[in-house]
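A common beginner's mistake is to predict each chain separately and then try to dock the pieces by hand. The better habit, illustrated here, is to supply every component at once so that their relative placement is modeled jointly.
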Amino acid sequence: MPEEYKVITKLFDVEGLADLDTYRAHDGYKALEKALKMTPDEVIQAVQDSGLAGRGGAWFNTGMKWSFMPKDPKVPSYLCVNCDESEPGTFKDRELMRRNPHQLLEGAVIGAYAIRASAVYIYIRGEMWEELVQMERVIAQAREAGYVGRHILGSDYSVEVYAHPGAGAYICGEETGLIQSLEGKRAEPRVKPPFPAQRGIFDCPTTVNNVQTLSYVPHIIHKGTEWFKGLGSERYPGTFVFCVSGHVRNPGLFELELGAATMREIIYDLAGGPYEGRALKAVIPGGASTPPMTPDQIDIVMDPANFAIPGRGDFQGMFGTGGMIVMDDTTCMVDALLNLMNFFAHESCGQCTPCREGCPWARDIVWRIEHGQGRPEDLDMLLEVADNVAGFLSPRYSTICLFGPAFSYPLQGFLQSFRSEFEAHIEQGGCPIKQDKSIKVPG
Amino acid sequence: MATFTIDGKEIEIVPGKNVLKTALDNGIHIPHYCYHPGLSAPGNCRMCMVEIEVGGRRSLLTSCTTMPAEGMVVETKTEAVARHQQAVMEFLLVNHPLDCPVCDQAGECDLQNYSYTYGPGKSRFAEEKVVQPKKDIGKHILLYSDRCIRCTRCIRFCDEISGTHELGYFNRGVHNEIDIFPGERLDNRMSGNTVDICPVGALLDREFLFKQRVWFLKGTDTVCAGCSAGCSIRADINNERIYRLVPRQNPAVNDYWMCDDGRYGWGHVHSDSRLLFPLLGQGQAEALALWEAALARVVEGFAAVREAHGEGAVAGIASGHLTNEEQYLFGKLFKGVLKGGPVALRPKLSAEGDVVFKSGFTVRADKTPNTRGAREILGALGLPVLDASEIWKGIQEGRIQALYFLGGDPAERLSETEKAALGGVDFLVVQDILASELTRMAHVTLPGAAFIEKDGTFTNHAGHVQQIRRGLAPPGDARADWEILRDVANAMDGGFAYADVREVWAELVGTVKAFAGMDLDRIGDRGAPLAAAEE
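With all components supplied together, the output reads:
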């Protein structure tokens, strides 16, 4: 049985952790004090040496990303915290913000210091209103205690921190869509290059970091680079917070060292496995935009290195956000895909042609198949429509942002792994799995 | 010299010029919708994606947002590119209505054209289309959102060129649509350009709608006569009627744009008030006449005044509406044949002054196309151009007894002073295009030609000389003004032996220093600056 190793979720059960005093009683803000005694470049170096990689999904070295920011800024630079967590099946950032907000704030201020940012924007998904209100209270506490604002802890460094409510769209989580939204514009992702480090918020250099990434920063500074490097796998040190949801007996968050467990162990040992009498049918490994995996594929060790990123080496699946959606044998895969397609068709920003037109088109076809109006030629056409938006697990995509692949990978994945089920729908003129779709509260 | 290659052709890198524009300028066509050379490049239509290899990595990239780099290899005609173009065409058409037969854009539609060249030929889409509304968004503009491919050219035009920001993008995904912001109307003075740059039939010109299939139109490249900016335009004509004016690209004058004043300012050409025949007699007593009779009356009238009051008693009002060639003939006639006295120009300035837009595009206060040319040429011929008030004063004081008045203004209006003065001359000859209170006061009215009814050149406010071209015959017995001036001179035995306006041009170039060395070939479609303006 794999053991959890808690770093950023360690204090989750501490009562009143959102209060400054409680957080300080657990070594809170010691890392910030330590960081301010280092030079910004030393902080960057420490984070770079720790091997911390961006938990937003790109797995790019965080310290390296910070080093792209101007050392002698002529215009303001910004740190932006991406708390627009909207990937279906993913709920770790929300918990990190809700249960240990000071940890995130401390990490953000340290990061801001490292990249010489003059302001931090914490962009919080509009639906997470309570977290936003709490974050504003947390910022106010920190400001009063001198951790935020002018001359932090008596140093020369000043930074303002703002919590900004998101505008309610999945695409606001794409970093340049987020920047557009933050500027008060439509959340339409920008064409890259230029990258945010060159021209981000208000055309100034900007680093966008994920909540989970920044939550590690105080620990790395406080406990040291070597400690962090000793955790997890060689290529991807540290821990990861997995979210397991769906047809399991014990859904929830599980923080483990990267590479410490297989997907099967997480699902069966930590999340309790499927309900009595049910069998595992499929797992969406890392949020709605990752292709589903079948029971014979889940012995994979949960290390991003094993998954590989599209276009970078051998591929076995996508690690994604670590948000696993478990489906048992009562699930109709066409219905499950229709659910995802409804989501993507609804969330496409509509800026660029392939995504705007392709997502609803695919949704309509899947709807027909699920409702008994499928045609034999539909399946190949679906695959082609998806491929025209983004080739399966390839670096080729025709859209401005990665929404294209996020839509087309699961579509192609479902068809690849469960084609016979789609064919059965078409042949029988309807869904073979008669299921009760009402929501039930377990008694 | 840094270079890169497109389809194997080595091309020099022009800093700031993207791969798409570089290809287009080098005769390599890459299909595109959202990119317009006069606007920013958002890269949203995805049609211009081509294979680009940099540093050993080959990928499909939008050529409108990619800047060339040393050694970059661009391939626009590979299998992958063709497949992608087919895919984008299919996507663009899934929700596009099949209403080409009733669409104004048909025949000049990029969606149609690219469908033939790059599209898959048939649609696999068997779902229900998203249907969007037709909207009335401005005085001149209708938006059939249904046909819109969301390239956002129109939004960017209003943001970047006119700077008036009336248009925005609303809703999300396949339901997103272009619209005016609440409380706004697309009524800026450049609004018609949005129709020109719309690659499909979404933005429509209310005036042009359903009037004509574009393939029946014959374009005449000419110059707008609405103000002294002198925008390069094309007049689209069929059956001896103008149907629309559209701007031509000219970086030296108007870039890609024209204002709505000019665009819709051609109504006078087909007005019922056009002068069709020479007229003799004033007001109620006006009677149609043959040219011979009218010319004879002109000769006789001026001779009588000259005899009674001397040479200085004949004055001239020149016109900024006439061409350079006509200015030259008028000057030559007035000085050498008619032997008249003072010559003046009546300025036509709009009270609002120059109207400058965000991009720098300017609607000029001077509502004549060629006042600059009139001043340059008459001055060079030794006819100092006076202020018109001098002439009115001369009439009041009895020094001036006859007037040769060149009109040409589509909206002629006389002030009380002018009316009083004109009533006081013994003999008034008016050469104009429209009946007005001015022509009613004339003893002889000579029917001239509108800008689209004659050949010649205009000199704009900045001294840029461009050609205007005849796309229509003058109505009735009306003649090109240069012909009238020639005929008047010849009726006075002036010996003006010009068969063609080009002969006048040749003489003008040889005589007037500012025009020295110019030739029509060099002027071409984009014009050339006066020698004086070039310095």
